[in-house]
Write a structure and sequence with these properties.
Blueprint: E1 12-15, E2 22-30, H1 34-41, E3 53-59, E4 65-74, E5 85-92, H2 94-106, E6 110-111, H3 116-123, H4 129-140, H5 144-151
Helix pairs in contact: 3-4, 4-5
């Protein structure tokens, strides 16, 4: 299976930043329906360029504008997971984050399991097993020494 994900793999969504209130949060969407879902959550009249931030109104499942945020599309295979990826860089309200995730789920995405974005990066050949394990170590690092060790392994 390495090198290519099967076409039946679902589009997934999750908050990619630490839980809690903050100035900003990133909601990540990955999979074959990512761009179609993003077009409804953050409509645009013209195609977004890959890897370019664009300002957009973020809409709730009811169609109301709930935030003005940055959106970035990453076209496959040049994304972290190797799939089509969209990130919504929204304000860090827990309620807002949940509204964005709920809207994506209502449009067909499913909640990502912990580590699933990195698992997809490994499965698509974007990361080696050692690199994928290093990502987990990096996230769990508690001091500069652990951080340095993890970074040198990625």
């Amino acid at each position: 299976m390495r090198g290519r994900l099967p076409s039946f793999v679902a589009t997934i969504v999750a908050c990619a930043t630490a839980p809690g209130s903050s100035a900003l949060a990133v909601v990540r969407l990955s999979g074959s329906a990512a761009f179609e879902i993003a077009q409804i959550v953050a409509p645009t009249s013209r195609p977004r360029a890959t890897h370019r931030l664009a300002l957009a109104d973020i809409r709730s499942v009811h169609g109301c504008v709930i935030d003005r945020a940055l959106v970035v599309e990453m076209h496959a295979p040049r994304s972290y997971t190797g799939e089509s990826v969209v990130e919504f860089h929204v304000h860090g309200s827990a309620a807002l984050i949940q509204c964005v995730i709920d809207h994506c789920v209502a449009l067909g995405a499913r909640h990502a399991e912990p580590g699933e974005f990195t698992l997809r990066a490994f499965a698509s050949g974007r990361l080696s097993l050692d690199q994928a394990e290093s990502v987990a170590t990096l996230i769990a690092s508690r001091n500069e020494q652990e951080l340095s060790a993890a970074v040198h392994s990625i």
